[in-house]
Amino acid sequence: MNDIFNFAFAIQILPLLAKAAVITVEMTLAGFLLALPTGLLLVSLRLYAPRPIGLGATALIEFLRGTPLLAQLFFMFFVFPLWGIRLPVTAIGILALGFHYGAYYSEVYRGGIESVGRGQWEACQALNLGPLRGFFRIILPQAIVPIVPAMGNYLIALFKETPILSAIGVAELMQTAKVIGSDTFQYTEPITLTGVFFLVMSLISAAGVRWLERRVKGVHR
Amino acid sequence: MSGSSAVADTAGEPLVRFDKVVKSFGSLVVLKELDLAVAAHEKVSLIGPSGSGKTTVLRALMTLEPIQSGVIYVEGEPLTHMPRNGGLVPADARYKRRMRSKIGMVFQQFNLFPHMTALQNCIEAPLSVLGLGKDEAVARARELLQMVGLGDKIDRYPGQLSGGQQQRVAIARALAMRPKVMLFDEVTSALDPEVIGEVLAVIRDIGTEYKLTMLMVTHQMGFAREFSDRVCFFYNGAILEDGPPEQIFGNARHERTRQFLRAVLEAQ
Lengths: 221, 268
What we know:
The structure holds two protein chains of two kinds. By secondary structure, chain A is mainly α. Chain A has a domain at about 25-170: MetI-like fold (Orthogonal Bundle). Chain A has eight helices and no strands. In chain B, a hairpin with a 2-residue loop joins strand 6 and strand 7. The interface between A and B is medium-sized, with 20 and 27 residues.
């Protein structure tokens, strides 16, 4: 027995936490997969839609980036039901993560899109490629390459923000750790293990992003 | 010239006609009621000091720049406006696409798609715009890349090609759309001197092998003289003088033209 850290207890709760870790990763990936198209849609509206719609998109982006994720989460959790929109907590969690990070991703996309020279658009027009085709086949592939590292970094940030979902009771890692703590009055082990899990995953992901960064530098230039 | 059908075409409506075209950027007027007619299969060089409006002529024709007034006609049809109820209204996307398909352009900075190989650059638009089958598009692209001397480099990315090679791919890419008019916008200006010749040679070949109308903005006076049917000297947004190359280069009427040519030839 160890007073500071009970290894036997830690091992005992490991399966429970591992199951919750899977949910954390699932929420991360689901939020990410929603954020990618959301960001693309927002930036497309911002850059190419008629002015009123573009301004609306810009306002929405600034609103999503300028207000806390927790507030957005609570809004969807407490206010949506008043409007008759009842969603499971995991869905609310994914939507909140996806929209919040979608706004950030839209800015990342914008950086990439604006780094593609005007000449590429002109070549598209000279070849009569329509705007959609030009965007998806010519502009976007070039815009993505330089922003892959930034996208990876936001993915890590999103991952580290999933514990916020515990506030609405999503059974992810932090929520599970809190439940174990309140059931057994032993918080040290579950919270420590949760921290270690996030640290290890973040370090691995960061290494992955650095690897991508090196790969990306050599592409087509 | 003989009495072939091609000449009969030119006898009527010119292939390209600028009618009192005005283009301005804010208060800066770049084209001042420009009139210019180019016959089918004519090769016209546009020369003149920078800022004189010659590149704007090509960009307006490619619909890259909107014009403020006047009309550009291609094969007798207005380029950016379509006839409706007896008048002209701004063209819709379909009309613009149809008109644009008659025109191809090669840019100073090549503007190749860097994430696609030479072959992919040349089949992208034929596949999606012309609706060619893959085999046909590839065969056409191979033939054109062969013609510009890059038959052995079709799978290279632009980044793996020299400037001269990239520009030749860009020429093949434009030709793959089978335009009637080809626009060359200072296509050798971004190139190292030693590769300018290979690009000009390709343009020369196209001029003889294809029945194309060509408009070319160039600072290569030797090439303009030898290659063009007609040379237009631009000054201050208007054509100050135009005529056969022998006249412009040998016996220009305007002092401004002679001054410009002296300055350019001295620099070269």
